[in-house]
């Protein structure tokens, strides 16, 4: 009987005798081959487990890409305010009212501004100075013509003609001055009317009044009075993974599923694609316009967007049917059968030689 411990083999009898060299070599080779085979099997199991885990994670990822989270918001929102300081005289709309672009929403007190506008309007309509200047010019021109005829007949001197010509030039300049003054008064009338117009708040967009911050009698300064939102069309914003870059183009139709009971899926068109990636989330923004006739959908809803070219969760490949990934350098595929261990050369490896 004998036992091998490491590379030393001894007899379990009373006297130690060296075992044959061929028996020691066979015993050591069998042990080394057994350890090598066990290591290869463990490595294959680790690779298989990693591949199965990667396949299990890929399916939920594909489902998340197919139904990307999004948010439905009004396409336009305007905080309507006034550039002047004043007191609210009358609010002409209430919450929920539908308004058109340019429709009056509120009025500020404008008694002084209206009076100034009336004065400017009256002044601009007065043309007496212009008519007087025109009459003076006509008289001066007639005097010039008469003096020219008299000069030809030598009844007057050249000096009389020159004096009549100078008076005609002065009358012409006075007419130009009167017309310029009338134009200035017309512009003052326009400015006075603009001051009155600033006291009327008008809607810059078509939509619905969603907030009302002021009431009649309140003084307003540097703050909005109302908020108007356009909900037809609606705007849909979603963040798309960077892996989907190039799969979405301007004008593409994407199905939107609002997170609202009873709401049917709708189609929205891509109107904007962000050209700068978000490094933190590795995503880019896509904006869509969603028609909303009859205001059937409210703004502020969460939704799901079906991205084109994405794979659904049902169609995700299973780990059994998924193609094997390309092996990395120095790593053998898990499905490959373990190669037989090369025979040991005890002559080259001195550490495996039995010690006598």
Summarize the entry for a quick read.
The protein is an alpha+beta fold and 356 residues long. Helix content is 35%, strand content 25%. It contains 4 helices and 14 strands.
Task: Summarize the structure in words.
With 356 residues, the protein is α+β, with helices and mostly antiparallel strands. Among the domains are: 68-76 and 228-306, Beta Barrel (Elongation Factor Tu (Ef-tu), domain 3); 110-198. Helix content is 35%, strand content 25%. The chain contains 4 helices and 14 strands. It has helices at residues 21-66, 111-125, 128-152, 158-197; strands at 2-5, 8-11, 67-80, 86-91, 98-99, 104-108, 200-202, 207-212, 219-220, 226-241, 253-258, 266-273, 283-290, 301-306. It has a 6-stranded antiparallel β-barrel with strand order 3-10-13-12-11-14. A 4-stranded antiparallel β-sheet has the order 7-6-4-9, with no helix packed on it. Strands 1-2 form a two-stranded antiparallel ribbon. A hairpin with a 2-residue loop joins strand 1 and strand 2 (8-11). Helix 2 packs antiparallel against helix 4 and helix 3 runs antiparallel to helix 4. Mean pLDDT is 77; it is low at 1-16, 21-26, 43-65, 310-338 and 346-356.
How many β strands by DSSP? 14
Instruction: Give the neighbour order of strands across the main sheet.
Output: 3-10-13-12-11-14
Question: Major β-sheet, in short?
Answer: 6 strands, antiparallel, barrel
Structural class: alpha+beta
Approximately how much helix is present in the residues?
Answer: 25-40%
What would you call the shape? elongated
Secondary-structure element order, as H and E? EEHEEEEHHHEEEEEEEE
The low-confidence runs, each spanning 5 or more residues with pLDDT under 50, are 1-16, 21-26, 43-65, 310-338, 346-356
Number of helices: 4
Gap between N and C termini, in Å?
Answer: 17 Å
Mean pLDDT: 77
Radius of gyration: 48 Å
Our estimate of the beta-strand percent is 25-35%
